Amino acid sequence: MLKLLTQVIKVHPQKPEKEVMAKAAEVIMRGGLVAFPTETVYGLGADALNPRAVERIFQAKGRPADNPIIVHLGDLKQLEILTNCVSPRASEVMKRFWPGPLTLIYPRSEKVSPVVTGGQDTVAVRMPRGKVALALIRALGRPIAAPSANLSGRPSGTTAKHVFYDLNGEIDLILDAGPVEIGVESTVLDLSTQPPTILRPGAITTEELRGTIGEVALGKQCQPVTRSPGTRYRHYSPKAEVSLVKQNAWYEIGKLIDQYIAMGKKIGLITRLYYPHFDSSRVIIKVMPRGLGEYAKEMFAALRELDEEGVDCIIVEEVEQKGIGVAIMDRLLRAAAH
Ligand code: TXA
Ligand code: MG
């Protein structure tokens, strides 16, 4: 069957044009799928209160039906549709971090379909601060369900081009406002435990959360991924096989490169150091920014670009596990998990 090309419309990242927002909102209102930038990554949006539209998200991404989707709000009034239980502590946390890259888990109301929550009794909610995302939700006047706009298992999309590459023909519209601001997804926090549990490290750091709510625990999902096969499903993964090496491990990198060359493989290297002595016809080097914030912005793009260069394997140097480095390492470990 011939698939229709997905439409791409440019939009101003800070002052999104009203007509474009109205058009995108109409597509969503009619049950369609619109990819749009948030401050973290591009999201793939559908009307959160239309289960059939949300089902289309799962189809387009090839996402397992039990992986729940985050609902995005334009104002706090919309939270009342989704849950009946907001604790004083949750109110405090929302006041401090919303709009922004923090997702909170609430008991779901009966208005939220189990399609959205992957069959769970809870719903994940956040109010993004990205101007286009907020303008779109406000133009629609309803909450938007949106996972990251990539094929399931692949690195998240941080530009409209990444989204087009993965989802062209599967979705109705992409709003292109250029590269996103942050580059890794929101932090997912469960406030129902004592202390609260970080289910996914992300753009709001553990240090920031501790500064506001005191102790927080790292959830099971956050445990370092072991490399043994079958212990974790692949996620954030390019087509090439990813290996992680410690920082400054130039000797180990050299050995790995020799092994891969002996196997006839084409190699990518993601590093913050400059390695002029590697044979550039065999090793494509992506030199990343030293600063972790800048690194985060470029990480998923670097993995995708090396795929496009046709490398078979990608060696990635670890980064320090502090600040947003915790989220970066979480994504890299999962990309490397077999
Ligand atoms: O920054 C972000 O969060 C981006 C942008 C588009 O907002 N969205 C995003 O969505 O990363 P997604 O679907 O790629 O990741 C959502 C994460 C998954 O790990 C999912 O399992 C978790 O949130 N999640 C969703 N609902 C949940 C729930 N009810 N309980 C626990 N975890 C949940
Ligand atoms: Mg995702």
Summarize the structure.
By secondary structure, this protein is of the alpha/beta class. It folds into two domains: 215 residues, DHBP synthase (Alpha-Beta Complex), CATH 3.90.870.10; 95 residues, Threonylcarbamoyl-AMP synthase, C-terminal domain (Rossmann fold), CATH 3.40.50.11030. Helix content is 32%, strand content 19%.
Text of the CATH class of the largest domain: Alpha Beta
Q: What class, by secondary structure content?
A: alpha/beta
The residue fraction in helices comes out at 25-40%
The CATH superfamily label of the largest domain reads DHBP synthase
List the helices and strands in order: EHEEHEHHEHEHEHEEEHEEHEEHEH
Describe this structure in words.
The protein is of the alpha/beta class and 338 residues long. The protein folds into 2 domains: 7-221, DHBP synthase; 241-335, Threonylcarbamoyl-AMP synthase, C-terminal domain (Rossmann fold), CATH 3.40.50. The protein has helices at residues 18-29, 51-61, 79-82, 88-97, 114-117, 131-140, 160-167, 206-213, 250-262, 292-308, 325-336; strands spanning 7-10, 34-37, 42-47, 71-72, 102-107, 122-126, 144-145, 173-176, 187-190, 197-200, 217-218, 241-245, 267-271, 283-287, 313-317. Strands 1-8-2-3-7-4-6-5-9-10-11 form an 11-stranded mixed beta sheet, with helices on both faces. The protein has a 4-stranded parallel beta sheet with strand order 12-15-13-14, sandwiched between helices. α1 (18-29) packs across α6 (131-140). It starts with 6 loop residues before the first strand and ends with a helix. Magnesium ion (MG) binds at residues 147-148, 156. Threonylcarbamoyladenylate is lined by residues 38, 40-41, 43, 67-70, 101, 103, 105, 117, 120, 122-124, 128, 146-148, 185-186, 188, 199-200.
